[in-house]
Write a structure and sequence with these properties.
elongated, MetI-like fold
Length: 296
């Protein structure tokens, strides 16, 4: 009975230490707050957006934000060159950015994790093939390849997600391969092999639970990377196509007026900066918290 109570107390102590480490990390708290706010805004966009983000009112073109002397509370962040409410498009744009970031990270994470874990666990020819694939992928500039593919296939939300997903798997593969190589030599993996556990069971119960922390860290960084790449593609006119309210597309549409109406690119640019910064802070914090030297 005392042994059970001792284990329970130890588990509660570790849980308390972990919570204290999470809530005591400023980067994690700031990043989590901004990301959570962005997610809530994206999910509740139809409820909080003051106007239809696609509605055009040419009589109210380029209305400045409310802090300008010419601004109006009807359009708090003003309107764009087609008279569309900028706040509404900014709110719906959060949906596009998060959808592309998470979608691309899921695809690339699945590809990279399968390849990396296979290379690290099986070694030999499998490792050689996967390493060659990683080398080939690293030799291709992501932006140039994405531009070429999107220019040929055509830009759309689905195409951008698929292209980025198939181009951003290399970091997952490298990290998962390295982590699996380290874990494969552990005693508990050797014990599982000695008692006759199948390869599938070893991979799912011994390998994956011990690499999931690294996977989460890489996923957060790749979400931010995908959001930046989508904004770059949309800015060049080869990403998300009008009238979808992509932040990169909003910057592109406002660049011709940047000297006269700088808020057209400042507002979506600041939103993009804050979201990417928050995701990176969250990823860096997750890496610090889950580092081996900080687990005890």
């Amino acid at each position: 009975m005392s042994e059970i109570n001792g284990k329970t107390l130890e588990s509660q102590t570790k849980s308390s230490v972990f919570r204290r480490r999470v809530f005591g990390h400023q980067g994690v708290m700031i990043g989590a707050a901004i990301v959570l706010a962005a997610v809530l805004i994206a999910l509740s966009a139809p409820l909080i957006a003051p106007h239809d983000p696609y509605y055009q009112d040419l009589l109210n073109r380029l209305v400045p934000p409310v802090w300008d002397s010419r601004g109006s509370w009807e359009h708090i962040l003003g309107t764009d060159h087609l008279g569309r409410d900028y706040l509404s498009r900014l709110i719906y744009g959060a949906r596009i950015s998060l959808l592309i970031g998470v979608g691309a990270a899921l695809i690339s994470g699945l590809i990279g994790t399968v390849l990396g874990v296979a290379a690290g666990y099986f070694g030999g020819r499998v490792d050689m093939v996967v390493t060659f694939m990683i080398t080939v992928r690293l030799s291709m500039p992501v932006v140039l390849v994405a531009l070429a593919v999107v220019a040929i296939v055509g830009g759309s939300l689905q195409v951008v997600i698929m292209v980025l997903g198939f181009l951003l798997w290399d970091r997952f593969a490298v990290v998962m391969r390295s982590s699996t190589l380290q874990i494969r030599s552990m005693d508990y993996v050797a014990a599982a092999q000695a008692v006759g556990c199948s390869t599938t069971r070893i991979l799912t119960t011994e390998i994956m639970p011990n690499v999931v922390n690294n996977l989460i860290v890489i996923a957060t960084l790749e979400i931010a990377h995908a959001i930046i790449l989508e904004a770059a593609l949309s800015f060049l006119g080869l990403g998300v196509q009008p009238p979808l309210p992509s932040w990169g597309l909003m910057v592109s549409e406002g660049k011709d007026m940047m000297l006269f109406e700088p808020w057209l690119i400042t507002i979506p640019g600041v939103a993009l900066f804050l979201l990417v910064l928050a995701i990176n802070l969250l990823g860096d914090g997750a890496r610090d918290i889950t580092a081996p030297e900080n687990r005890n």
